[in-house]
Design brief:
Blueprint: H1 2-18, E1 22-23, E2 26-27, H2 33-50, H3 65-86, E3 90-92, E4 98-100, H4 109-136, H5 145-158, E5 165-167, H6 173-179, H7 182-187, E6 196-198
Parallel strand pairs: 3-5
Antiparallel strand pairs: 1-2, 3-4, 5-6
Helix pairs in contact: 1-5, 1-6, 2-3, 2-5, 3-4
Length: 200
């Protein structure tokens, strides 16, 4: 019963983030205000982390000192993350984390160790960020670590750049929603459940 409920929730999230209209920088829907709020926050945080926004802003209850500290650390190592992604050495998992991929740029042991350290730091911060978002939104129904991870995965997927790799969800409603989204259409025939795909 819990698994069916989780799939229903992921389907709602996929529909919300993948198949609705664009407003400003985010993907906004009037049908699920709690998820829309988390998605708007994800857009703001990722804009800050990636450097297109100079500061985090918004409702005070959504911006704890912990969240701002975590986002600040992520912003510092974002250039290394972005470089590894562009080299094909790093992919985004469907759980909202990053994972090392085989690539020529990190063949020697020193480069591999450096990349593993960056990945470990990034994933530690991402997990802390997701947990902090759940803590800050504990009064909103259905907001769990899994849903926050998925919102961030979809937000990153929807802003994916050529050469970046993403792990598709397993077969089911979540994948079906991505397949029909703009990102799924960009990926075309390579958009396959549970597969690693690379934006052309």
């Amino acid at each position: 019963m819990k698994k069916a409920s989780a799939w229903g929730l992921l389907l709602a999230l996929t529909s919300l983030l993948g198949c609705v209209t664009q407003e400003e920088q985010g993907i906004i829907s009037n049908t699920a205000p709690n998820f829309r709020y988390i998605e708007e926050q994800a857009v703001m945080v990722l804009d800050f982390v990636e450097g297109s926004r100079d500061a985090l802003s918004g409702q005070p209850e959504a911006l704890s000192p912990q969240l701002m500290e975590i986002a600040g650390r992520m912003r510092l190592h974002h250039p290394e993350i972005a470089a590894l992604k562009q080299q094909g050495c790093l992919g985004e998992t469907s759980r909202g984390l990053v994972e090392l991929r085989d690539c020529d740029a990190i063949e020697d042991s020193e480069a591999q160790n450096a990349a593993q350290k960056v990945v470990a730091e990034e994933n530690k911060d991402r997990k802390a960020l997701y947990n902090e978002i759940v803590r800050l939104n504990r009064d909103l129904p259905d907001i769990t670590v899994a849903t926050v991870q998925y919102v961030y995965f979809l937000t990153r997927l929807n802003r994916g750049h050529p050469g970046e790799s993403f792990e598709m969800p397993e077969p089911g409603p979540a994948f079906d929603g991505i397949k029909g989204s703009a990102a799924g259409k960009r990926l075309g025939d390579q958009c396959i459940p549970s597969a690693w795909v690379t934006f052309p």
